[in-house]
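FORM 7B: Structural annotation worksheet

SECTION A. Query
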Amino acid sequence: DALSDEIAALKRGFNKERNDLTSTLASKEESIQELEKQTEELTKKNSQAQNKADELMKHYMHIEDELRKQLQSVECEREGLECKLAVVQGESVRAVDEFFKEKSHLTSTLVLKDESIRELGLHMEELKKNKSEAQDQLDALSDEIAVLKR
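SECTION B. Predicted structure
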């Protein structure tokens, strides 16, 4: 009878252990399923994040290409404007040189004209003096003629 009690106690202990292990196994299976579910969700989120990153990378590469094209266009335009500026500066230097040549020529001409006007003024003074002397002589002759006629 003691053996039956011991066997019954062992069976109860075995059943308890089996129930505990079954409960633990079920709990572990639930944990594994939860972890698999979380892993699946993380994998999905990771895939979505990677897709978003790929889209952003493609978008920014497109923007970079557009900016590079714009920069090249601006560089070409700048080079063209620099060439035009060099031409305009050359023309400006030539125009300034031409201006100073013309100014020098006009200044020389003006000096010559001033000298001519001064000489004409002197000549006019001399002619006025001669005219005055001739008038004086004419008056004197007229007076003499008048005296002789009387």
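SECTION C. Observations
The chain has a mean pLDDT of 96. The CA atoms of residues 39 and 62 lie 34 Å apart.

SECTION D. Sign-off
Analyst initials: ____
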